[in-house]
Design brief:
Chain lengths: ~120, ~180
């Protein structure tokens, strides 16, 4: 009970793992490209949660790697958010071009490059 | 003043489980809703709950960036694209492909891996201690990591990120434009 009520880094990691799994299931099973992209956003956010949780973990650690200035995880999370923005812009651009050509948004009907 | 014991956060467990439940339910709704607009709204809910978790992790700057960039920027982009493509027809279509067996197998394998790592590595992740900041210290510390000439080690990565965004802007315009 105490392990459940005392929130530690592990709790955030388990939550991040659950979100990651939800994203993986969404990417693998959905047909709609928009929802596949949203599932990728879920995966990136799970990773971000882990990064910030580990940053918090290192802030509580002694030594020159730890201490209150150990914010590398948060900086990495900001870079991941930047990547997510770029990925969403390019992915949705591809989606619009694809919808204009094929009149569908289903990933399993994307077979132009299939040999 | 001892920084470890001073000013412990209140009701941490309750808010953690509330926000975690919001995120999990939002995530489940993202991957199960038929209408893509409903998925987008569920994703916004999950992302806002995650911003709350960032606040609980003493990362107010990342929480602000999360709200402004994700809930304010990326999700608006998603909603615009959902409006551009026709949703009436896609709602009536089959929503899941035939790979659900592969999906469940992959999720089970990954979940088993996570469970193994977390149970074996339990002693590696003890509870993080409470650290108090001065007011406004977090944003300043992140800025000095990003921009400071001497202490900052992410200046080059920051410039590369700006280049990445430029490439993404040009790529998105090239992709979405009918005739260049």
């Amino acid at each position: 009970m105490d392990a459940l009520l005392h929130i530690s880094t592990l709790h955030y990691l388990v939550l991040g793992a659950a979100l990651f799994l939800l994203g993986v299931i969404g990417v693998l099973t959905r047909r709609n490209v928009v929802i596949v992209l949203m599932s990728i956003e879920l995966i990136l956010n799970a990773v971000n949660l882990n990064l910030v949780a580990f940053s918090r973990y290192w802030q509580g650690m002694p030594g020159h790697l730890g201490g209150p200035a150990a914010l590398h995880g948060q900086v990495f999370a900001i870079f991941v958010i930047t990547d997510a923005a770029a990925e969403a812009a390019v992915g949705l651009g591809i989606l619009i071009a694809f919808f204009r050509n094929k009149e569908t948004v289903n990933v399993d009907e994307v077979n132009l490059l299939k040999w | 003043m001892n920084p470890v014991t001073a000013n412990p956060p209140v009701a941490t467990a309750f808010f953690f489980y509330l926000l975690a439940a919001t995120m999990i339910i939002g995530g489940i709704m993202v991957i199960t809703r038929k209408n893509a607009v409903h998925s987008a709204l569920a994703l916004i809910t999950a992302l806002l709950a995650q911003a709350g978790l960032y606040l609980m992790l003493y990362a107010p700057f990342v929480a602000g960036v999360q709200i402004i960039l994700y809930a304010g920027g990326i999700m608006v982009l998603f909603l615009f694209v959902i409006m551009l493509i026709s949703i009436e027809r896609t709602v009536k279509e089959r929503q899941f492909n035939k790979q659900w067996l592969v999906g469940i197998a992959a999720a089970a394998a990954l979940g088993g891996l996570f469970i193994a790592v977390f149970t074996k590595g339990n002693a590696l992740f003890p509870a993080a201690k409470v650290v108090n900041y001065e007011e406004g210290g977090n944003t300043q510390a992140i800025a000095s990591l990003l921009f400071d000439q001497h202490a900052g080690m992410y200046m080059f990565a920051f410039e590369i990120a700006s280049l990445l965004l430029l490439v993404a802007i040009i790529g998105a315009v090239v992709m979405a434009k009918k005739r260049i």
